[in-house]
Specification:
Helix content: 40-55%
Number of strands: 10
Strand content: 15-25%
Oligomer: single chain
Distance between the termini: 18 Å
Amino acid sequence: MKKILFPIDFSEASDNAFIYALEMAKLFKSKLVLLHTFDLPIVESEAMPLNYATIYDDLQMANFEHFRDEIQKLRALMQERNLEHIVMNHILMDGDLIYNIKKVIQQENIDFVIMGTNGVKNWFDSFLGTNAGAVISDVAVPVLSIPVESKFQKVQTIAFTTRFRKKDIEALVKVLLFARKMDAQVKCLYVKTAASDVTDETIKRWQSHFEDEKRLQFFIIPNENVKETIEDFLLGQDIDLLAILTYKRNFFVELFTTTTTQHLSYYLKTPILALHE
């Protein structure tokens, strides 16, 4: 993982996720690419004043100066954690956030995206709406989203939900690569309902395939309530990071719109690693 893209908006969520970005860059010996996007006013040419070009330039300069000042604050955070050695490049672009992220991923050969999500208020909308959720669904690289209430700590346990499909194997291999770098354990969970089409033979074949992975455990839990079972698993197993495949998006929406306040407050502290098929 050579390059990590970190979109920043200088919010509390962004500043908090920056710590994760730094620690991941340290762990994987990666370069950080910081992207800040901003909007410039759109004016019809017929109504454009003669001095609009000057106003446009002034707005660009104001955004640049704000960006420069905020970068200094981020560099102060780097010094606090003794991570000044991490290579960090900056990109300032106007326009749509998602479009710019996709463009930078291609131009800079980005391997990974890390970004912050908002807190309790409107958390679902911010996560699955125009920001992190849109990035997860629109880009082809893994995305690590960091809730604002998730304070950085060493990742010791990663949960990976599976349905024992062939496409899950490749995703689990990727999760295990992360786990090795983090010196973490992976707990692979399957909730088996009465309607399950996964055979015992399939499960045994998977377990045999990964039998040499000492840091991997399989959990097969029979239960008709998949959502609550996963919720209880995350709580009971002290999960530090939840890894998912994006084909689970509909289920993911259901999981994170639970009305259980206690469980929702826990999720707000759980980073989410989204992998693609």
